[in-house]
Amino acid sequence: MRKAQIAALTAATLLVASGYYGLADALDLVPGPVTAAAEDITPQPFPRVASPQATVSQPSPLPEDAPVPQEAALDSLVQALEEDEALEEASVSASVIDVATGEEVLDHRAGTALTPASSNKLLTAWAALSLLGPEHTWETSTVLEGQTLTLVGGG
Question: What is the DSSP letter of 135?
Answer without folding.
Answer: T
